[in-house]
């Protein structure tokens, strides 16, 4: 099962900060080195070190360029009078077309795609990296009113930016991160001077990414740019949720250092967390029914618990079953408790679907955004519903082929066992034993007890 990553962006986010934080979490440096050596890009080397930012020990990831690839024309001087190195080593925010003439190599999305596809990255890492580049390309295209395939970016095409984005993708894949929670991006204020002149903060590319991908931005009193285009694109590409579960455990912490000196610490804190909302609910219910006070109650074995759940519902026409299958997958991954859709006939006898989503209140916004993004619907209905829940707990049981997880519910003092699908499916794949054979064994073994 994949890991859940929480990115705490209170000092903003950039490409090198993200790489450093992921390396600090334990991403394999040798795997990253092997991929970077396979890139059809020259003129750089990477350095990983420890630094202290605002008294906090942090990992620093630095891409050192040779003289030919240094970004000499990237003037990042801020108007309040101080020159700061950028989070991403003086990346420019401007973008050019094919008619621009500079001494730098300018690469478009086609050239960058070729570099990634011919690297030693895994397919999943390639997918992540290409998505980040696509988001950047779309943002720059909108900012400068040119087609995506005609954008030759300094920000995206620069060697150090390519290395940062590829490194983020490799590290996320290596850590087996499948869920990413980013509640908010904290941004500074003021203006920044770059190759194309003076730009307001957030710079146009960042503003476009935030708008197009429904990210939450919080403006702070810090003077200067905290969120770089690459940092915003990384979040847009990998974020699956914007709310933390009510309770969770922190398994590991990684801290990545930025290059700028601001009033804020200048670090990105990344955490691998466990216990999603559903597990929290089951754990709370289990503890409730193990409580000694309940145990002393003669009616405890029949006791049930109640809670409140949200039902989201919408009618959808002009949508294929394949699309709805993908929507279901996204909704479940983003925190939905259950998803189903049924065929119906609407007015004028049009065939359509009714999509139903069961969720907790804190997940409504994330899930509704997925529905609006992926389907043709223009409205969603909500109902607050009470439900009764049997006490349940998760157990691990032995089988002749290995251990499996089961859900055990209690009613009138009797236990009913339900094998967990994913656990049975994984064992079936590993041992090449039919799914039904393992499932029946677990059920029958439980009945014989």
Give a structural overview.
The protein has helices at residues 15-24, 29-38, 109-117, 123-144, 154-157, 159-174, 204-212, 229-238, 277-290, 292-295, 321-333, 364-374, 421-431, 435-447; strands at 3-8, 44-53, 56-65, 95-96, 152-153, 177-181, 185-189, 191-194, 197-200, 217-223, 249-257, 267-274, 305-316, 338-345, 351-359, 381-389, 392-399, 402-411, 414-419. It is an alpha+beta fold and 449 residues long. The chain has three domains: 3-274, no CATH class; 305-389, Transcriptional regulatory protein pf0864 domain like (Alpha-Beta Plaits, 2-Layer Sandwich), CATH 3.30.70; 392-447, no CATH class. The strands form seven sheets. The protein has a four-stranded mixed β-sheet. It has a four-stranded antiparallel β-sheet with strand order 14-15-13-16, covered by helices on one side. Helix 3 packs antiparallel against helix 4 (123-144) and helix 11 (321-333) packs antiparallel against helix 12 (364-374). The longest helix has 22 residues, at 123-144. This is Pyridinium-3,5-bisthiocarboxylic acid mononucleotide nickel insertion protein. Residues 82-104 are annotated as: Disordered. It catalyses: Ni(II)-pyridinium-3,5-bisthiocarboxylate mononucleotide = pyridinium-3,5-bisthiocarboxylate mononucleotide + Ni(2+). Belongs to the LarC family.
């Amino acid at each position: 099962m994949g890991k859940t990553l929480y990115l705490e962006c209170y000092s903003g986010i950039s490409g090198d900060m993200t790489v450093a934080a992921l390396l600090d979490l334990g991403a394999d440096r040798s795997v990253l080195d092997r991929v970077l050596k396979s890139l059809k890009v020259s003129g750089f080397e990477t350095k990983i070190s420890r630094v202290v930012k605002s008294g906090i020990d942090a990992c620093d990831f630095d891409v050192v360029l040779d003289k030919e690839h240094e970004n000499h024309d990237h003037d990042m001087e801020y108007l309040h009078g101080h020159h700061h190195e950028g989070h991403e080593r003086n990346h420019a925010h401007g973008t050019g077309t094919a008619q621009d003439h500079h001494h730098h190599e300018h690469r478009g999305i086609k050239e960058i795609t070729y570099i990634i596809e011919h690297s030693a990255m895994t397919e999943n890492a390639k997918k992540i990296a290409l998505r980040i580049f696509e988001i950047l390309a779309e943002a720059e295209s909108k900012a400068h009113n040119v087609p995506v395939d005609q954008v030759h970016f300094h920000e995206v095409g620069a060697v150090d930016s390519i290395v940062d984005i590829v490194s983020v993708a490799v590290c996320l894949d290596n850590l087996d991160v499948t869920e990413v929670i980013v509640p908010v991006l904290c941004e500074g204020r003021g203006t920044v001077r770059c190759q194309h002149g003076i730009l307001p903060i957030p710079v146009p590319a960042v503003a476009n990414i935030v708008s197009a991908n429904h990210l939450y931005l919080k403006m702070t009193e810090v003077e200067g740019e905290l969120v770089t285009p690459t940092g915003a694109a990384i979040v847009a590409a990998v974020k699956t949720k914007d709310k933390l579960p009510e309770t969770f455990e922190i398994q590991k912490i990684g801290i990545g250092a930025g290059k700028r000196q601001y009033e804020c610490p200048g670090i990105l804190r990344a955490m691998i967390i466990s216990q999603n909302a559903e597990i929290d609910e089951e754990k709370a219910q289990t503890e409730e029914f193990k409580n000694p006070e309940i145990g002393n109650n003669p009616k405890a074995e029949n006791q049930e618990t109640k809670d409140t759940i949200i039902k989201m519902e919408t009618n959808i026409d002009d949508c294929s079953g394949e699309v709805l299958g993908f929507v279901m997958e996204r909704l479940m991954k983003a925190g939905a408790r259950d998803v189903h859709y049924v065929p119906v006939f609407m007015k004028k006898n049009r065939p359509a679907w009714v999509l139903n989503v069961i969720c907790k209140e804190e997940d409504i916004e994330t899930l509704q955004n997925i529905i609006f993004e992926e389907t043709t619907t223009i409205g969603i209905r909500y109902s607050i519903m009470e439900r009764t829940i049997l006490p349940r707990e998760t157990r691990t049981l032995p089988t002749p082929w290995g251990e499996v997880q089961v859900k055990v519910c209690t009613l009138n003092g009797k236990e009913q066992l339900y094998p967990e699908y994913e656990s049975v499916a994984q064992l079936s794949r590993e041992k090449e034993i039919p799914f039904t054979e393992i499932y029946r064994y677990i059920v029958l073994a439980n009945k014989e007890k």
